[in-house]
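Translate structure to sequence.
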């Protein structure tokens, strides 16, 4: 199992794009949270965290694909 964290400028459809990447890589979201907060410059920042069931090779592909999503600033994936 892996923990995925995606930090991005918030926008409509962002969570849908993130979950579609996981789905396309045959990952299963066990649990997730998504929070939005304003940074120091007034920009709305989304922080999506999910525990996902996915194999190691697909996890690396998920990170590469997440980084291609518009306005994504940071992607981290770790073992849990």
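Result:
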């Amino acid at each position: 199992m892996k923990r995925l964290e995606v930090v991005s400028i918030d926008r409509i459809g962002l969570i849908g794009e993130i979950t579609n990447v996981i789905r396309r890589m045959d990952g299963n979201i066990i649990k997730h949270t998504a929070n939005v907060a304003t940074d120091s410059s007034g920009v709305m920042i989304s922080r999506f965290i999910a525990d996902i069931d996915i194999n190691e090779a697909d996890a690396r592909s998920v990170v590469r694909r997440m980084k291609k999503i518009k306005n994504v600033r940071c992607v981290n994936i770790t073992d849990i």
